[in-house]
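Protein details
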Amino acid sequence: MDRNLKDKVVVITGGAIGIGFEIADRYLEKGAKVTVLLDINEKEGAEAVKVLTTKYGNNRAVFIKCDVTKDLEQVFTKIINTYKNVDVLVNNAGILDDTAIKKTIDLNVTAVIEWSMKFWEHMRKEKGGKGGTIVNLASIYGFRIDQFLPTYQASKFAVMGFTKSLGHKYNYDRTGVRVVAICPGFTETKLTSNPKTWKDEQLQVDLFVFLKGLLWQKVDAVGKAAVDIFEKADSGTAWLIEGAKPISQVP
């Protein structure tokens, strides 16, 4: 298994800001050929490409406007027509809003599964692909439970189950496609700036009190972890990055 990012074509959903952008930055720093940033926000996407190309050179980062719940087929075709082969898919796009149950499942679960399966088929060695790696952004809430965000937690448990099943050694040995999960702890991003519980005012108040007492980290910790995980993780495994401490494998 090639665990070197040099010359890799990397596709990142939700790549314009936050963790997705940080992973793009770190992967380019390690020698990725190009990062294809997918996001619904064109302004943020253009700014992300400007920053990354200034830092790493022209054509090292590109932006494609994309709603991951709707645009898989057309965006996949555009990427393949341009680059022929994709080495790495990072499923990072997501939502943290327990008032939006269907949207949470559509973004956090269904899109992750659909994008993974599409690129997994593209990468399969026994079907003419070159192998590759799929990185799914799960969460500390993919294996820990509290009382505040049941829908979000359910979505991340689903990501963990999907990752471990698709990434199972049986599947990896057949296809040469590695599937792994990153489980960030509480990270300062736009997503976590205003988390919403279901419509319960007291619960919302208690959530903010709860969050103030937790161990937080900045996005750069997750970006560094994404490199470490790429370089060391076996298929079907999940890794915690919490409080900017070294990564650790979780059950």
